[in-house]
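C-alpha cells for chain A. Residues wanted.
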C-alpha cells in the first residue's frame, strides 16, 4: 500500500494505492497525510 494524491492541483484528494493496483479515496477519513495522520489516526480497509 502507498499513500497518494489525485485530482486537480490545490483541489486534490488523498488516497491509498493498494498492492492489487486499486486506488481507495481516504479523504472522507483524513484531511491530509500529515503529522496528525501519522500521529495516531487509524483506518481499516476491509
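Reply:
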Amino acid at each position: 500500500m502507498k499513500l497518494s494524491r489525485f485530482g486537480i492541483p490545490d483541489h486534490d484528494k488523498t488516497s491509498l494505492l493498494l498492492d492489487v493496483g486499486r486506488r481507495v479515496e481516504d479523504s472522507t477519513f483524513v484531511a491530509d497525510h500529515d503529522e496528525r495522520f501519522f500521529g495516531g489516526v487509524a483506518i481499516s480497509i476491509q
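Residues 2-38 form one domain. The mean pLDDT is 82.
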